[in-house]
């Protein structure tokens, strides 16, 4: 009757140690299949051809250190590792654990005989790690779907205004094209007028294309991808995206952008989603205010560690006891809405190692601030 054996790759150049370990696995109640490699090169070839379920690797090998087999990060690790060494050394232990090894064994007659039990414990731990990672992957996938739905919902709320915005350049194109048709049969003296009309058509086509491009980028269901970008640039992109919606609500947008802001590495679509959510919340908070008082201010600043964006409104404000509840799933002060916009926004900012907070303004209204770490220093955001 065939039995399933647990495949173990033993990377050990000392024949005596390899024999003792292999003997211990042979005598163990569990079925093991031990494959031996004596060098890092042999081990890598084995890993590439047929990855085992466990790797036990010696620290010192003829062609390098055993830690060289460990992946660059634990998230990219496909199998668990146990690192062995002939001499106890705290520095080696730290290097092994930081490198992703699940256990560190100092060679002795007892520890080599106990290797099968060590391997069983490591495999149980690895199963938990894999299950946690699967759960995290499922959570991230659900969050991605929810964030995508939130972006589409935001676009749905602005659909009428956006349709109007696209219709403007299309109407202008039709008018200029009509002018061209009128001028063409006439003499060459009107060449400049015809050329001017064609240039205006080109400008309006580009304008309509920019509107569609912004919409497509914003609602696209894409894999998260980071790039170096300036927050000021993202804010100006969002300002173009929500311009008509602000106008339809008689809301004035004031931008106070710090020209000295450095570029930072972020997911452009996600950070734009946060800005859109916060600007929309700001304008919706002022529906009961008189038009002259409907002002949304967006301010960018920076310090030695972070770049920050403040988005303030002049609405009735948020009671202090509700300032944290705002970020809880499904909590909303609106008559309509899912109550997920701020939850998603905070998750996005925290995934970028930043913070999103809410505070009351001195007179009236609220300010939402998100801060993101500068990270690597780059050219100024101009």
What class would the helix/strand composition place it in? alpha/beta
Main sheet: strands, sense, barrel: 5 strands, parallel
CATH architecture of the largest domain: 2-Layer Sandwich
Q: Helix share of residues?
A: 40-55%
Strand portion, in percent?
A: 15-25%
Question: How is the secondary structure organized here?
Answer:
Elements: E1 6-11, H1 15-27, E2 32-37, H2 40-49, E3 54-58, E4 60-61, E5 64-65, E6 81-85, H3 90-99, E7 103-106, H4 109-113, H5 115-157, H6 159-183, H7 191-219, E8 226-229, H8 231-248, E9 252-256, E10 264-267, H9 268-284, E11 295-302, E12 306-312, H10 341-351, E13 355-360, E14 366-373
Parallel strand pairs: 1-2, 1-3, 3-6, 6-7, 9-11
Antiparallel strand pairs: 4-5, 8-10, 11-12, 12-14, 13-14
Helix pairs in contact: 6-7, 6-8, 8-9, 9-10
In words, what does this structure look like?
With 382 residues, this protein is an alpha/beta fold. The chain has three domains: 6-133, Rossmann fold (3-Layer(aba) Sandwich); 158-221; 224-382, Histidine kinase-like ATPase, C-terminal domain (Heat Shock Protein 90). 47% of the residues lie in helices and 19% in strands. The strands form four sheets. The protein has a five-stranded parallel beta sheet, sandwiched between helices. A five-stranded mixed beta sheet has the order 9-11-12-14-13. Strand 1 (6-11), helix 1 and strand 2 form a beta-alpha-beta unit. Helix 8 (231-248) packs parallel to helix 9 and helix 9 packs antiparallel against helix 10. Mean pLDDT is 79; it is low at 377-382.
